[in-house]
């Protein structure tokens, strides 16, 4: 092989190597694990950076759409964001609709392909917080008042809207006798006001509660303990 031919082979090799090396860079920018997390209909899109996008110079672009629509919509507040999440609560307010989100990365003038979520239906997938609970002593008994969490949207009169408007909710109330360190369920039902009777005087008790959704066979975490000392 002549010196001229050797030089041409070298140039071709360099050129091919350059092409091969840019492809992994493009692919490794692509966001990973793009998914929705939803709590009380606060719907947040989350993702993780690709292998080559961990630097501070990477920015992310977010789009969303309703299932069946062809046109994607830009989320302006998350267009060029450096965060790894984007609040799409207002864009996904029709809770029984199905939505998609997608994210792409840009870094050093290179754009990744889009990474899309699975289909997201807020009504099916949102998780409910524990009930808000107040405990008051009344004549040797404990009066427990429960409230379901509110959703992030208000009604036409500007008032808060409860999760009870969208699901059948069952409240479970548990009492803990501090001297025995034993938890006992004392109520399960739909009433939001529960009286716990037949308590031992001069004994400390703690009360916790949770919410159960029968249709989805799903329950919330338990609330924080509310503790009292009986007179």
Structure write-up:
- β13 and β14 form a beta hairpin.
- The strands form 5 sheets. Strands 3, 4, 6, 7 and 8 form a 5-stranded antiparallel beta sheet that branches. Strands 13, 14, 16, 17 and 18 form a 5-stranded antiparallel beta sheet that branches. A 3-stranded antiparallel beta sheet has the order 1-2-5, with no helix packed on it.
- The radius of gyration is 28 Å and the shape is elongated.
- It has helices spanning 3-28, 122-125, and strands at residues 32-39, 42-48, 59-66, 73-81, 85-87, 99-107, 110-111, 115-116, 132-138, 141-147, 150-154, 160-162, 170-177, 182-189, 193-196, 204-213, 218-219, 226-229.
- The model is unreliable at 3-24 (pLDDT under 50).
- The protein has 231 residues and is mainly beta.
Q: Which SSEs are present, and which pair or pack?
A:
Layout: H1 3-28, E1 32-39, E2 42-48, E3 59-66, E4 73-81, E5 85-87, E6 99-107, E7 110-111, E8 115-116, H2 122-125, E9 132-138, E10 141-147, E11 150-154, E12 160-162, E13 170-177, E14 182-189, E15 193-196, E16 204-213, E17 218-219, E18 226-229
């Amino acid at each position: 092989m002549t010196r001229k031919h050797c030089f041409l082979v070298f140039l071709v090799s360099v050129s091919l190597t350059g092409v091969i090396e840019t492809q992994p860079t493009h692919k490794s920018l692509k966001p990973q694990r793009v998914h929705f997390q939803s709590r009380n209909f606060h719907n947040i899109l989350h993702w993780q950076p690709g292998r080559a996008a961990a630097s501070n110079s990477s920015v992310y672009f977010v789009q969303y759409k309703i299932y069946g629509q062809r046109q994607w919509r830009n989320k302006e507040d998350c267009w060029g964001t450096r965060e790894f999440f984007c609040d799409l609560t207002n864009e996904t307010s029709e809770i029984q609709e199905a939505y998609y989100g997608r994210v792409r990365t840009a870094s050093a003038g290179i754009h990744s392909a889009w990474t899309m979520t699975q289909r997201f239906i807020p009504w099916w997938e949102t998780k409910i917080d524990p009930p808000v609970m107040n405990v008051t002593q009344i004549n040797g008994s404990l009066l427990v008042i429960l409230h379901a969490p509110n959703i992030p949207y208000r009604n036409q009169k500007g008032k808060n809207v409860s999760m009870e408007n969208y699901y059948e909710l069952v409240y479970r109330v548990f009492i803990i006798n501090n001297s025995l360190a034993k938890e006992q369920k004392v109520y399960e039902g739909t009433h939001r006001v529960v009286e716990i009777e037949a308590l031992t005087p001069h004994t400390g008790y703690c009360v916790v509660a949770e919410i159960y959704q029968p249709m989805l066979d799903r329950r919330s975490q338990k609330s924080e303990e509310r503790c009292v000392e009986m007179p």
